[in-house]
Amino acid sequence: MEIGLYAETAGLMHLDETLERAAALGITRIELSTGGQAARPFLDVDHLLANAEARSELLDSLDRWGLRLSALNASAFPLHPVLGSDHVELTRKTMRLAGLLGIDRIVTQSGTPGDAEGSRIPNWIAYPWPEEMRETVRRQWDQAIALWRDLAAYGQEQGVTRLCFELHPVSLVYNVPTLLHLRDAVGDAIGVNFDPSHLMWQGMDIPACVRALGPAIYHVHIKDVAIRRHNLALVGVLDSRPDAAFHERPWTFCTPGFGHDARWWREFMVALRDVGYDDVASIEHADPYLPGMPGVERTVALLRQVL
User: Fold this and answer.
1) 2-306: CATH class
2) Whose CB among 80, 121, 276, 284 lies 3.0–4.6 Å from 221's, allowing a Cys bridge?
3) How far is CA 152 from CA 4, 96, 117, in A?
4) How many Cα atoms occupy the beta-carbon half-sphere of 122 within 13 Å?
């Protein structure tokens, strides 16, 4: 398995510096954003689509440092009642660019629609009760399946055969059953970008999830979660307070090793190997206490122990 880096999460200002620092750590694969939730993506997707020379320069830059692309990341809100059309177009552009760059997968999210005609924001219903809320969720799924059937077919035309979904709460696809439901409805183009951190704070058994998803795992993110049990005891895992500080939350993202130790991460890697995954472990750094490259460096050191 190769160590990769989701480049924008390393906290550096320029792609060239990020590539240089990644190569110095022995990282061999790079994941790059095209927009969506990334505030400052390194890639200008429109420029790259229109300019073959710019695409060649990007690939040459990677090659100069001994790096290869693992995926393009377009984690966005394609079913958003207001932003959705723009984010669907971003997803299509990302697919076209991925095909032109010779990679067959993108990282994305399913999205969540609003609850009715005229909605302005998504409505993620964590507990579908009473009955009218169940009907809302069913309608949302009808929209999601129709959209992703269309996008999967479009991706196939561009040479993108693997759509790697983040299992992220606030998206319709956020756990094992919801991913498998969409995969059953759309086909094998639908798979997982398996990020254990999003499942950790929900209380899931990560190796069990790996084994349940098996061949649907198309890409892996490396990110950890620290559980703050004194807060969890009072709040639970669903903490919707908009202004709570990090230290008040029941959980926070953290550098791998600070939430779960090397033994845990070794068992995670064993589970991935057991289902035949031997591709890239892409570091997505999101630690509010240890930002940027220091966190990436610690993560690489841990991965060297467990791979």
Assistant:
1) alpha beta
2) 284
3) 25, 12, 25
4) 22
Separation of alpha carbons 113 and 84, rounded Å: 9
Work out the number of other CB atoms within 10 angstroms of the CB of residue 135: 11
The pLDDT mean for the chain works out to 97
Helix (H) or strand (E) holding 239: none
Strands (DSSP E) contained in 138-247 are 162-166, 190-194, 217-222, 224-227
281/277 Cα distance (integer angstroms): 10
Structure token pair of residue 170: 């606030």
Model pLDDT for residues 27-76, shown as the tens digit of each residue: 999 999 999 988 899 999 999 999 999 999 999 999 999 999 999 999 99
Q: Facing residues of 164 across strands?
A: 107, 191
For residues 147 and 141, the answer to whether their CB atoms sit within 8 Å is no
Q: What are φ and ψ of residue 251, in 5° steps? A: -155, 155
What are 283's two structure tokens? 């570091």
| Model confidence, pTM | 0.97
